[in-house]
Design goal:
Residues 1-151 form the Histidine kinase domain. This protein is α+β, with helices and mostly antiparallel strands. It has three helices and seven strands, in the order βαββαββαββ. Bound molecules: adenosine-5'-triphosphate (ATP).
Amino acid sequence: ERIDLKLWLSALLESFQERADAHQQYLQIEIPDSPPQIESNPDALNRILVELLHNACKYTPPEERIVVSVAVEQNQLQLRVTNFGAEIPASALPQIFDKFYRVAHADRWKQGGTGLGLALVQKLVKRLGGAIDVNSAQGETTFAVSLPIVV
Ligand code: ATP
């Protein structure tokens, strides 16, 4: 299905803006001025970004930033969600995509959850033939998804 990246993102981010505002988080979007239309599965794409944004909002403390960036490079769509103020311990990173795995947060950002969000994201990314990477260090966490697309 044909997807207009700008339309898709603005609709999606609008729904998260309210939530970020309510938590005093700063939501920042980086998207090219005129991204090409792409061919992909809109439901899967939406679910992937919704889950990543949901986590970012959930684990980011007030007054910190969440940055969503989208880029189209050759035949890849690159989606990145970075959030500040919440680090995943290196020892937990290998398990982060496992079903029901959750990091035990001892601090006051402790949040409820099932540990299924990232397992679903990984499954959808694989189904679309893409890859997902996570980096977490020095108080920031980035999930980077790259998906093959037809421009
Ligand atoms: P649910 O899927 O029900 O929201 P969850 O958030 O615990 O539950 P996952 O989305 O699978 O489950 O995430 C697994 C763990 O990874 C979380 O418990 C959390 O500790 C950590 N995590 C995920 N995303 C982030 C993030 N953006 N920043 C910091 N920690 C994160």
